[in-house]
Amino acid sequence: MKRIFSSLLAGVFLLTALTGCGTAATSANAGKAAATSAKSVQLTYYYPVGVSGPLATIMTNMVNQFNQSHPDIHVNPVFSGTYPQTLAKVETSIQGGNPPDVAVLNHTAIFDLLRLDAIEPLDDVVTEGDYYPQFTEPKVQDHFWGVPFQRSTVVLYYNKDAFKKAGLDPSHGPRTWAELVSDGQALEKAGLTGIEIPSDGTTYWQFGPFATEAGQNLASNDGIHVNFNSPAAKTALNFWVDLSHKYKIEPTGILPWNTLPDDFEKGKTGMIIHSSGSLGTILKKADFSVGVSFLPKDKSQYLTSMGGGDIYLMKGLPKDRHDAALTFIKWMTAPEQQASWSMNTGYIASTPKAYDLPEMKAYVSKNPQALVAPEQLRYAQPELSTYQLNQIYDVIDAALQSALDGHATADQALDNAQASAEKILAGVQKG
Amino acid sequence: MEDSWVAKEEGSAYTRGSMVRTKLQAAFPHLVRYGLLLLPLSVVLTFIVIPLVRTVWESFLAINARGLATGPAGLKNYRELFASHLFRLVLRNTLLYAVLSVILCLVIAFFLSLLLNQKRNFSSRPLLIGLFSPTVIPMIAAASVWQYFLAPRFGLVDRMLSFLGLGHENWLGHPGTALGVLVLLFVWKYAPYFTLFLLAGLQSIPPEVREALRTEDPHHLYSFRKVILPVIAPMISFVTVMSVVYALETVDPVYVLTQGGPNNGTNLIMYYLYNLGFNYFSWGMAAALSTLLMAGLSALSAFALITLERRTFHWQ
């Protein structure tokens, strides 16, 4: 009898617990529904943060602004890590049958997104939008897929005050590879680290322009061919290795992308190579005069890599969400928003029109450094983009790191990388 | 109240209807018990059994980038896995990491437990808090703190080194030192935890036996080998297996501190597994590796259970 009683008691407890949960959940849902208008279309928006600084806050503010000005749409921004993490997250959510409606992803992720059959073309938005053609061209499979949102180039930041102290001309950064070395040596004599180039994470991105300047891009544009062991890439990597091992103007080992701007902002390092998207934060934090310059040229001309993210529309949305997402994408990439995003972060506004706006003009006249990246677009080369992107990136990044940390010669490392990459891409071609 | 209800039920037990009722009544506690089990069982089924079976099944299928099966693949996924250069490197890393971590962990845990067991004043409160706080910090948080400490030049470690007049070192910037950092993190986090088990083993020696050992063998010449070691042997084997399992399962510090780099020097098997699926879209190979890991880890656990059972020391 006692056992029946205790079983009963347990049953009652369980029931109470279950109904308790039920009520709690319903009331939470009710609260959420009440908070937003009953009729509004709900959108989920994934975005990564790829540079240093409090970009998630800036992004949330921007989305809030959109929600306030569009009462019939409610966008829920979801910060989803780095670029590769965001891609992984989008991909998993597609498999789970619950993809976001809109996402910012690497421009270079396009081949993989197409293979996942994840995105919808955005030809109309792009043709009407007046974006820098360097950001949108060339078409892939005859369509424009992503709208440029947070695009950047690789630039060189230098400490003008330190340049003066080291007896260098602060009006310009190093213009050639040889000047990079001599400037670095002068800075070292003045007690600073000469230069720091990030080499963890997506090292290929900083490396790409050096290879291109030396003669050949790291990849062709078809997504299935790479040129990792070209003579140009070997020249470039040997130069990188020499910076720390021969000229001793760069610390040895792998330098972290995220913390390297700190070294610069605190005046420990005279020059760094980083994304133009870090400009906003660097200007805010550095208490010296910051110079921004093009990447130095090898022989003939300046070149740089473009990078950063496009905003994509996910495939297969119901009509109301599809239309709402289009409205959101157009709003996010309109000149006004691009100007404010660019001023807050340092990313290049994706349309030249943004630079004609009065507030942008005022900002640029105060911070002329902000114009370096858009001017550099003339010399911009496509970023390494292939199928199996994350895997190819890991291959080339590991090769660069092994050479930089002295585990292999530059030539060996790149030859191995080429072989691995060809094997991976051969698998893609087979289907 | 309760008693009168019981009496009434028993009084009418001979009619047919009440017999059914009695049977139901007899079955009721079972129903409740299984009903209660239903919830946890369905959770186990949904989140463990079904994915497990599906993973094994899918390791023999060809799977496209979207994760959909396109046809049977036989052993192709397994062959591709073992043909991969990176996989062999990862195996080597994992082996090195596991061996170093487990040995260091065990040796330190063993001496710590002896220390804590022998002298009362060693088990002072601040010491215990200091020792066991790593155990309760989540790995992700611990790794983030370590990353902060290890930052070249600005981190605590480099500042202390420069205070001692040594140069700065980019600890996470070389494959060797980065793997070393991971090993130290593991030992720091788990050695005190395993100490608890060994300490429990040592303290299970009854006081009269301890008393006898103290008088018969004041210098612990024989008692250690003949009594103490056999007593804690099952604990040692349990702790060994657990630490091997934990070491093989390491993924969070890799994710936070190094992302497998530099040059894949800290790419451990769990991180590689994550990459295979979520970054490389090689779902077939990922399923194959999961199956192998599952088989390996289950074998290890079974081994642990068997040795634990067989070598348990009984005082009676």
- Sheet with most strands of chain A: 10 strands, mixed
Give the CATH level 1 class of the largest domain in chain A.
Alpha Beta
Count up the domains of chain B: 2
Q: What helical percentage do the residues of chain B reach?
A: over 70%
- The neighbouring-strand order within the major sheet of chain B is 1-2
Q: What is the overall silhouette of chain B?
A: flat
CATH architectural group of the largest domain in chain A: 3-Layer(aba) Sandwich
CATH topology of the largest domain in chain B: MetI-like fold
CATH class value of the largest domain in chain B: Mainly Alpha
Distance between the termini of chain B: 47 Å
**Distinct helical segment count of chain A:** 18
If classified by CATH, what would the architecture of the largest domain in chain B be?
Orthogonal Bundle
CATH fold naming of the largest domain in chain A: D-Maltodextrin-Binding Protein, domain 2
**What value does the Rg of chain B take, in angstroms?**
27 Å
How would a textbook summarize the main sheet of chain B? 2 strands, antiparallel
The total beta strand count of chain B reads 2
Question: Mind explaining what this structure looks like?
Answer:
- The complex is a heterodimer of chains A (431) and B (316).
- Chain A is α/β, with parallel strands linked by helices.
- In chain A, 49% of the residues lie in helices and 14% in strands.
- In chain A, strands 1, 2, 3, 4, 5, 6, 7, 8, 9 and 10 form a ten-stranded mixed β-sheet that branches.
- In chain A, helix 17 packs antiparallel against helix 18 (410-430).
- Chain A is globular, with a radius of gyration of 25 Å.
- Chain B is mostly helical and 316 residues long.
- Chain B has two domains: 2-41, no CATH class; 78-311, MetI-like fold.
- Chain B contains 13 helices and two strands, in the order H-H-E-E-H-H-H-H-H-H-H-H-H-H-H.
